Amino acid sequence: MTASLSRHLSQSQKFIPRIGVIIIPTDPFWVQVYEAVIHANQQRGADLVVLHPASTTEELLEISPDFLVDQVLAYGIDALICTMATEEFLLGMFSESIPVICLAEMKPIHSLMSAMTDLYPGGKMAGEFVGSRLGDKKRVLCVYAGQEAIPIKGVSRLEGFQDGLRKFSDVEVEPIAAYWTYQQTYSVLLEKFSHTRQRFDAIFGVSDALILAARDAGRKTGVIDDRTLLVGLNGDPLALSGVAEGSLTATVDIAAEDLGSAAVDLAWKAAYGEDLPPHLPQTFQLITRDNVANVAARKLTLIADLPSYLVGYSRQQEHDRLVQLEAITDISQKIGSLLDREKLVEVFASAVRHHFGYEWVRILRWSDQEKRLTFYGGDLSP
To answer: Which domains does the chain have, with CATH numbers?
Structure first.
């Protein structure tokens, strides 16, 4: 049941990779990356399997790694594209020879893994830009996700910003720990700014959601004005809008469209058995009012299909729920009156095979005597 269906294709058939995708759209950046994956795969033609094991990154990391591995393997994928993942989950995938393209700032731990590089260069680009315009002004704040429970908090971006700024000035950067979401960060900054009397000369947010929160909280409390340099990182549509209207000074675009396209390309190659590089290619571009129009047009093309995707996503969720309900009802009816255990197992295996589209279903049970899983029912072999 966990073996990849595509591995059982006959030699006369064309191999079409089956690629799993776990991208939790908790941030506009990840929505863009997801759209880029969809667009890139339309050119490639792989069988894309979008999985929804959790609604937030925190929920995803709380799922038992073994359980999540079984869930993913049940779809018979040849490669996986994901965002945040635990080391235990990744090792479980590698033990089944499934390559993973991890779109997170993680150190590769296996030859079957490609990951994003850290975003230090993006932070440094922002620091150099701010430093070149700061002059003798000294009051600089950097907002990062230091209060998050997840491992990635934007520290490499903070360090890059500090190093970039040092090329122009000895100014000390005051870091403030917040969250990845706008609303949580806005609350943190509103509390901090309400006790601050001096104006900030520059603020860097390690993501665009954070700089937007800093802009709005700063305006409300009066700790920023039109002279304050406000710089974000990601290149999200709302940030581009802020740059265009002048409420933000700049953002560093990390090219969500290129990242999604590279992920599909590597997943395709890995499914064919090609070696993976340790890191995905990463590009950075400073966006100011001088070039925001061109970048915004490119982003608009990327997310043009988003309304249709959201409708399709809701319909797919409803379809999945109906399939599960029908399967549970059918299985319950068929096994409810059976007393013969062997017959019950065979009926259960047949129902699972029918409703969920598996080529074969094998049921195992634990043997205390042999200390291993042994065959109990279903199909003997694929």
So the answer is: 5-117+256-281 (3.40.50.2300), 120-253 (3.40.50.2300), 331-378 (no CATH)
